[in-house]
Amino acid sequence: MARKVGFYLLILTLVSLGTLGTVSADAKFKVMVNNSSVNYGVQIVSGQTMVPLKAFESFNNTSIQWEARTKQVTIVRGSMKIKLTVGSRTAWKNSESVQLDVPARMLDGRVTVPLRFIAEALGARVTVDATMNTVWVQERANAKLVQNYYSNDLAVSRIAALQFPVDEREPSRLTGDNEALSMSYYFPEGRSDGYFIIYGHFVSYYEIKDNIRTVVWEADLDLSKEADKKDFTAIFGHPIVKEYGKAPVLAPSYAYYYTSVWGSQIICGIVNVDGTTKVSGKSLNWENNKPFIVAIPGETKL
């Protein structure tokens, strides 16, 4: 019920702002683009959220051009080209013309653009979190990464999964170990749609959904003790002190990759839920420019 009330209040706020014309929205709700706050130039114009053009500079493989003479903006990401002109309601997505409710406009010397139109044209996800009074914009993986992710080559698929954009809407409640000298990655055997990563005593679980990776579970490990249960602790070798979020369903076995922070050593193999491990590969002189995710003999994609 509280979530519904919050949602209706947010919608009422947006509608009210729209009826008043151009009103600064900074004090009413937040706009987050790729986990970074847009802390200036956010406005509601006729019910539409407007943000500075620079808010989209964090998108990967995206170029933004501004032509001062014609007051035209061109945004290119992959095969998508967006064009809009300050003061004009007609915008272009490749060869398709689109009529905007509110045109791009100038505000204090900055170009501001319709948030939802640009975000969705770039393939991003737009969500409203009523409980936090926040609009979240999260870019998705580009076409090349998505193609690699769906590859039947598990190594290629897992490398792509590690490169997907990260949704950080759920803030971490734990603290990682900045002095850890190694990291370990655990993928369910035969899969690449989720993985654990251990950095010192800190462990996180990521899920791949909607071409975005999201942290859904985190935990602190007690490195001074040995694991004594056939659960996550057996895989990691140490018991859990505290955890946050929803723990994933445990797979029967995991492909693991251990690498030093400096990238000079890699060990990979299969670990079972009882903690037994089979090492399938080891290198003490791993080259930094080579991916540490490699094929594990006998493992096939499910």
TrEMBL record:
Pfam families cross-referenced by the UniProt entry: Cu_amine_oxidN1 (PF07833)
Domain Copper amine oxidase-like N-terminal: 33-135
SUPFAM superfamilies per UniProt: Copper amine oxidase, domain N
TM helices/strands, residue ranges: none
UniProt-listed Gene3D superfamilies: Copper amine oxidase-like, N-terminal domain
Name of this protein: Copper amine oxidase-like N-terminal domain-containing protein
The species this protein was found in: Paenibacillus etheri
